[in-house]
Amino acid sequence: MGKKSKTSRKGKKAWRANISTADTDEFITQQAIEERSGGPLDAVPNESLYFVDKSKDTKVEKKTKKHREKVLHCDSVLQRNSLVPPLKAPLKPKRKRKEKDGAKPPSKKPAAVSIVTKDEAVEEKNLPADVWEEGDGNLSSDPGSQAKKKKKKLASVAHPVEAPAVEIDAPGCSYNPTFADHQEALGAAVAQEMVKVYQKVLQPPEVPRIVRGPGHPTDEEDLFFLDVDAEDEEEEEEEGVVVDGSVPPADSRAVKVKKLTRADLNRIARRKANLRAEKEKQEKLRLKKDVLRLPDIIEDINAHDEEAEKFRLRRMVARAERRAHEPPRLGKHKFKPAPVQVLLTEEVTGSLRQIKGCYTLARDRFKSLERRGIIEPRVKVGRNIRKKRAEYVQGSKGQKERDMHAALEAEREVSKHALSVVPV
Amino acid sequence: MVKSTKKKVTKAQKSKQYLPPGKRKLGNVAKYTTRNKALNRLQIKLPEFRRLCILKGIHPREPKKKFEGQNKTYYHVKDINFLAHEPLLEKDRDLKAYEKKIKKAKAKKNRELAERFDRLRPTYTLDHLVKERYPSFIDALRDMDDPLTMLHLFATLPADNVQKIPVERVQTARRLSLEWQAYVTRTNSLRKIFVSVKGIYYQVDINGQKITWLTPHALSQVLPSDVDFRVMLTFVEFYETLVGFVNFKLYHSLGISYPPIIDQRLERATAGVEELMEVVNSDGTSDELEDEETLRCKTLFKDLKFFLAREVPRDSLLFTIRSFGGKVSWDGDGAPYEENDETITHQIVDRPTQGHKFLSRDYVQPQWVYDSCNARILLPAEEYVLGRVPPPHLSPFVDNEAEGYIPEYGETIKRLQAASANHVLPLPGTEEEMVDRSEEEAALRRSEAAEVAAKEQEAVAMERTYGEELAKELAGVSYSASLQDQDDKDAMEDEKQERKQQVVPPPAAEDETATLAQMMMPKKTKKLYEAMQMGIGKKKAGVELLKQRKKKVEEKKKGSSS
């Protein structure tokens, strides 16, 4: 509560007492004064209120001047008045760009090959510049200078294999060759083919993809072959079965391992120690004997060294020869040279019109690229032939498994009975 | 007091990126990287990597120890780093981003926008690569074999959709190959031609460089499936740029403006050959400093006029005949002169019989042209007449002297060449005369020297036998026994003399000194000399064997025919 007393304000009369009329009385008195003195201040012109003091009051002037000359403290602080001269920004020494490839090419700048629209490119092509001009051709723009700066020493720009780009055929491959040359060329072609044939023949026989087991029905042909050696086979079978009585049947999966006792372990350990001791004794004996036959050992070592040296020389020579007529092995596949393009004897007609020319020259170019080692030898990957659809007959789900199980059981029966047979 | 030994800190060790030997890669592993690792480093896919390698000329290497296995392809680390700074990489990426815009426009069914984007597609050039890989003009010329062969091959390939061979490539290849042929024709630089099963080999001599290339026969070429045509197309793209620049330089050296201005009508008619010829032959300055070889080639078919029948390989013969200075025409539009022209001297035909024959001209098979050009003389046309199997087409790329064996027809050609050289009138320039004369004199001198040497040898041999016989008498050997020994020795000596005589005729201006030197050789060098002779003897034996085989075959033929 304020200074006002706690008077109740109920009713007009109560309110009349609380209203102060001080401000209205003030206003009225003020107005009276203004009227008496010559009007409200707002209505009075400036000239009657103010005047410019043109009196030369030196005292006052000095004072004002002095005050005006005073510098504000904040301003004086900002002004420099130190005897130390101000430092300028340090000059970065300009790097002398060497004539050679010293300077780094601007890597973050936009691409050196400017994006030209198709029309511009067409125009440029119509007026090709001379790349090898002595002065600067049109290629003095960024690409050329970048190429100059980028004179890095690449590891051997020359072709890796010393083979000519265009290998000229033997004279026997002419469309109208002499007899001797033709025979030579034919000989080379035949040799290539025969090498392939011999390789096939001399290879070990291939493992057949499908092997028919004992229970499966045999082909008709094989039946005849079976009869031939039937007697021998039966004998072998009997022998095989009789001899190993204690061996568990071949198909049983659970092989029980006997648990080793303490005695067994000790025995094994003793045996090991004995073996080791014997070995050491033998070694010592051998060393003693070796000391006596030192010259022989030296001879052996020398012979061995010579052989190793010969082997190394042979390998080097073989490698050099291989490098001379084959490209280096650059990838997964080995390089297969193209067959010699020569006319067969019956095709040599001597007529240019009837020539049986080579129509796969693209392959010759591709092989040449592989031969020079620019591309690694490539083999075309065939498309994945999707497996044939297998038909499913309902109710046949476990049939295969049931059949196999039955066959297994039958074999076990057979072997059991075989065991029970007593040999004569 | 023990001095504290300071470890010397090398310059490499001072750098912040220094790694001690245990931590960094050493040896082969540091120098080589596999292809997949390179792909990861460059952040590109395999087809683009292949393309870039081809354009930049980067090929895989074979390190001494293949540390990741035999199956991988290895590249030099420096090569890959070099590839990383190639501006074409950025270009490709920008192009891909642009393609996305087109795709988007198409997906939004905004065909106009897609077409507009397609028209304004950014392109790139390979000029900087040419300059990088071939800093000088001679380097580019040296490597022109492969580009020319590829361009000639692609000029004949069909523009296929399966293998994605664009039509523009084929057309540019054809244009460039024709421009090249026009230049060769103008400068008469063609030197050797060989027609084989694969195609036609040409060899040209430009600025001292021998350039050989292969052109396919006029058959429809098949695109084999085991060849990667994307690789071939990348090569062709690069080679187009290269050959364009080379042609430019060559044409400018002749004084002709490079893309030769072509008459449209003629172009359509003759598929480009004829008007190029016109342009090339009309413009330009003639080089006065011409090689003797070039002059010979220029004047070979000088006054001859040829007419080609329809069944002969037209492009090849046009090129060949023009390069050797002849005039050609054919049956069709745009031909310079017709078949009925009276001044035609030779008509090239390849059919078994010819219906109507003009009497003033020779009817020959195309092989006559090729063989004459290789031999540089006009061979007798009787052997190449219609309906007859011509003599064998020999390869000019075989060095007969190196082989030691010249086929029979080769010898005929040689004789004809020698004959024509003798009959050739001396040209107004006295140099040629002098050359001929000096050659004759040299030949005379050689024969004289041979005679003198033979005489000397005989004298020496007689002295030796006299001395030996004396010695034998002193030793007490009977006459008959000595005769037998003599026979053996004589046989050996005869062989030696034969060999020596065979050695003497080969061209040597210092024959006299040679024989003297033989006499006075110490034992060691004599043995070496004899070993050399043995080698030569073996070669001759091989040649003899071939000759005998030929005789046998001929005899059999005679026997069978009679």
UniProtKB/TrEMBL annotation, chain A:
Basic and acidic residues bias locations: 117-127
GO biological process: ribosomal large subunit assembly
Subcellular location: Nucleus, Nucleolus; Nucleus, Nucleoplasm
Residues forming coiled coils: 258-323
Record carries keyword Cell division: no
Any one annotated GO CC term: nucleolus
Region (Disordered): 78-156
Source domain of life: Eukaryota
InterPro entries reported for this sequence: Nop53/GLTSCR2
Chief localization: nucleus
Transmembrane segments: none
Keywords: Coiled coil, Nucleus, Ribosome biogenesis
Function: May play a role in ribosome biogenesis.
Family label: Belongs to the NOP53 family.
Protein name per its UniProtKB record: Ribosome biogenesis protein NOP53
Organism: Riccia sorocarpa
UniProtKB/TrEMBL annotation, chain B:
MF GO annotations: ribonucleoprotein complex binding
Pfam families: BRCT_2, Pescadillo_N
Compartments (UniProt record): Nucleus, Nucleolus; Nucleus, Nucleoplasm
Record-annotated BRCT domain positions: 296-386
Annotated region (Disordered), positions in chain: 1-24, 478-514, 540-562
Keywords: Coiled coil, Nucleus, Ribosome biogenesis, rRNA processing
Key word Coiled coil present: yes
Gene Ontology CC entries for this record: nucleolus; nucleoplasm; preribosome, large subunit precursor
Superkingdom to which the source organism belongs: Eukaryota
SUPFAM superfamilies with a match to the protein in the record: BRCT domain
Listed Basic and acidic residues bias regions: 552-562
SMART domains according to UniProt: BRCT
Gene3D superfamilies found in the cross-reference section: BRCT domain (3.40.50.10190)
Biological process terms in GO annotation: maturation of 5.8S rRNA from tricistronic rRNA transcript (SSU-rRNA, 5.8S rRNA, LSU-rRNA); maturation of LSU-rRNA from tricistronic rRNA transcript (SSU-rRNA, 5.8S rRNA, LSU-rRNA)
Biased amino acid composition, Basic residues: 1-14
Coiled coil start-end: 88-115
Family recorded in the similarity comment: Belongs to the pescadillo family.
Biological function: Required for maturation of ribosomal RNAs and formation of the large ribosomal subunit.
Protein name per UniProt: Pescadillo homolog
Naturally occurring in which organism (per UniProt): Riccia sorocarpa
